[in-house]
Amino acid sequence: MVLCFCGRVAIVRTAWTSLNPGRRFHACPKQGSRCGFLGWIDPPMCARSVEVIPGLLRNINRHEIANSNLMEEATKWKKYFIASWVLFLVVWLVSS
């Protein structure tokens, strides 16, 4: 158990800065605290990791956005398809 400067039990957070991508640290649990406590859990990353990881994260984010857009488009087309079949059935039942 790690205590911050306020005496509270520190929580584990993950840094996503360009210099510390994915690096975990202990921090004060109080939101907006001026305690300033920071204790690294993970060792410093090598220069290559610091260079590569942000690009990989950008690619993941870009693909997640594209996937979300495709899922929205697929949902829209499913609704059109169902509506067209309902309209077809209504026209067919009325005309028979």
What tags apply to this protein structure?
single chain; alpha+beta; 3-stranded antiparallel beta sheet; elongated
Quick structural overview:
With 96 residues, the chain is α+β, with helices and mostly antiparallel strands. It has one helix at 47-95; strands spanning 11-15, 23-27, 38-40.
Account of the protein in words:
The longest helix is centred in the C-terminal third of the chain and has 49 residues. This protein is 51% helix and 14% strand. It has a three-stranded antiparallel beta sheet with strand order 1-2-3, with no helix packed on it. The mean pLDDT is 94. The protein is of the alpha+beta class and 96 residues long. It is elongated. Strand 1 and strand 2 form a beta hairpin. The chain contains one helix and three strands, in the order βββα.
Query: Could you report the average pLDDT, rounded to the nearest whole number?
Result: 94
Largest sheet: 3 strands, antiparallel
Give helix and strand order, one letter per element, not per position. Answer: EEEH
**Helix residue percentage:** 40-55%
Contiguous low-pLDDT stretches (5 residues minimum) are none
Total helices: the number is 1
Task: Estimate the global geometry from the Cα principal axes.
Answer: elongated
Within the largest sheet, what's the order of strands?
1-2-3
What distance lies between the first and last C-alpha atoms, to the nearest angstrom? Answer: 76 Å
User: What radius of gyration results from the CA coordinates?
Assistant: 26 Å
Structural class by secondary-structure content: alpha+beta
Number of strands: 3
What percent strand?
5-15%
